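Discussion board: Methods & Data

I've been asked by a reviewer to show the raw model output for two of the constructs in my manuscript, not just the figures. I'm not sure how much to include, so I'm pasting the format here to get opinions. Each protein appears as its amino acid sequence followed by a line of discrete structure tokens. Is this the kind of thing reviewers expect to see in a supplement, or should I convert it first? Here is construct A:
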Amino acid sequence: MKLYKKYTGGFTMKKQILTMVGLLAPFFAFAEEAKLDTGDTAWMITATAFVVLMTVGGLILFYGGMTRFKNIVNTIMMVLMAYAIAIVVWFLWGYSLAFTDGGSLNAIVGGLSKVLMHGVDYKTLSDVGKFPEWVFATFQSTFAAITIALAAGAVIERMKFSTWLIFVILWITFVYAPIAHVVWGGGFLFDAGALDFAGGTVVHINAGVTGLVLAILVGKRKDFRKTAILPSSVVLTSLGAGLLWFGWFGFNAGSAFGANEVAGVALLTTNLAAAAAVISWVLMEWITAKKPTLLGAASGAIAGLVAITPAAGFVDATGALIIGFVAGIVGWFGVYVLKKALGYDDSLDAFGVHGMAGIWGALATGFFALQPLAWDGSPLQNGDRMGQIIVQIESILFTIVFTAIMTVILFFISSAITRGARVDEETETIGLDEAVHGERGFNL
């Protein structure tokens, strides 16, 4: 009673009652059932549609334009079928493996309690926002789909279509779902406070490393570095880059899980980083080759978007500008220096752009993330900048090692089922469009 009087002072009884009610109000509010926010729901549905457009619109054009005319149909089919298969696998079991409790295995993978959305009513609200869990699951399905579709760019023009389809099923199950769980779904990196706002590690490092491993295992195209391999249309590629840039606002701003101020942060940082990377990539071309190219500008935009993805909701404009500008240089290095030095044939530079820029972005997040924007529980919120950087390095290394090992295993399983992963030499010479699909991208 003495302590009570000490802190209430000369309050009247009426004031004391009002004060107690005010103190207890948050507990009563907490006890109330969460209600759907129509604004947040509308934004998340819109953001999901943006990400769909990124894959079945932007990525198809971006990759298709970079491919030789005799393989453009096959390239588009690899992306489109990867998207379709990934969506189905996600709702069959992938979502459950990524975003449920895995019991004794929870540090690495979730469980099977939500297979085919079992037990999730259409009115059930998501744990991360005031919108339906069905919307959250659909939003996340597009991330799984675009990740494996990105990896396709490393092996186009020589990988069997049948092998690719089997690999997609296995990869979503045994690589993407566990990585998503580890970083976002309650796994050990999530608990450690790893920051990945919209998919630097889960999407881009994952896709880049997968592409690199597949490119090495499938082998080089038979005319790689023997004849000029020219894109069918840099105009299509630039249009695809524009659609990817547009869709990326849903990818990043949608990862704020609501129509809120953090979505606004992600909107600004995404746009700024992409623009900065376009400038730096073109400058690198201009300095080294004396010719600034449209393909380089388009690639720079993607590198900037990749690099800002893990940091989008955590950094300010200055951080975004630095991350984007460096990303253009890092991406250019991955495409023109690293690939040449190591000699691998990554057809559309999945690793050079997504892998390299993704690694830079994940690391840069630790350096530039601001405390007020960091998620609850991250080491950065405790003022431990170096601790956050170490956690970011751990997330990068784990993703690289896990993805590389699992991709090798799944490749050989897929290859065994289809009796080899590579098309025969005649098919490669003719082009996969006519030999595999019986179509041409251009009937001119």
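Construct B, same format:
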Amino acid sequence: MSSDSSGEFHRIRRLPPYVFAEVNSAKAKARAAGEDIIDLGMGNPDSATPPHIVAAMVKAVQDPKTHRYSSSQGIPGLRKALAGYYERRFGVTLDPDKEVIATLGSKEGLANLASAITSPGDTILVPNPSYPIHQFGFIIAGAGVRSVPASPDETMLRALDQAVRHSVPKPTALIVNFPSNPTAYLADLDFYREIVAFAKKHDIWVMSDLAYAEIYFGDKIPPSILQVPGARDIAVEFTSMSKTYSMPGWRMGFAAGNARLINALTRMKSYLDYGAFTPIQVAATAALNGPQDCVDDMRNLYRERRDVLIKGLVSAGWDMPSPEGSMFAWAPIPPKYASLGSVEFSKLLLARAKVAVAPGLGFGEYGDGFVRIALVENTHRLRQAVRNIRGFLQAGSNVAEESVPETAAV
């Protein structure tokens, strides 16, 4: 065994330095210096989990029987509850024993399924920009990733067709994510029909990330790919309790769809974990089966925050689209600062406006002209962020010719 500290383990060598770490380091230094930083960087819901869900957890945890090992597939009642959600919301009937599995958040499920179905050297098609686990789950498993455009339109479909014709080896899987993180794109059922037809024609698995299914602000209600006839022949879909019920730290998600893929994930997880703590699963069951007013409240909360942020920043001179879904604004870097790139612009925004955002580069090289702004502060703090950014934008400095202040250095 080599003791050379400069060497890295094989799989770690395939992971680039975590882009967000630079901004996080600068943020930590600023806070340590006593600065009031408005953190809109991480998509970490700030609202309390609804009381009836917490109450179900408390009641369950008081029963000693729930303290034992759980089931890596998820307790039967929880899998039935997820199937019930799909029936109500999408009109999709699922077999809770063969087509549903509970996961430790959707991120864990996607990464473990990638490991289960990937052979070294496989080619995987992933939107760029996209949430990091979408590509790195497969990279960790030994695959190669080919980027395709992130927008749910003809541009992506043409790129997929080209990828199949020019990739060696032929792609084995495709990731889709709508409403998307970070771009906030929404897809319609017609687009999913095209994706399913493409995947079936070329014998490609599809993994759909639907974590933001319930965060939408207009008449365009996000569909499930499983609504497309025949989708379950090739597709599996990941959902999460984190955003819908403000349960990010509870780590509860699901995969649903193709029975062969669900079985593969079940076998993989049977070696790796015993599932989430049973009281958490009981609480998640109560969330899915109980009153859904809290979901409407959550959606209205994010809509109000979106309106405050977007209207405020547009009036301040930062031109950006208003997202139709997700809990993010995908903001093009103002032209004056575009030459900095997303990491340096994020550090500058932190230093001068005291607002933390996520650099677009962290979601793929095609995200470098953007920053992602998360709607994870109350409207008072968002208005404060708008005021701070307005002052920064109106300062009139030519940042390309100035050094970044010491507080933003890493």
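Answer (T.O., handling editor elsewhere):
This is acceptable in a supplement if you add a one-line summary per construct. For B, something like: The first strand starts at residue 38 and ends at 39.
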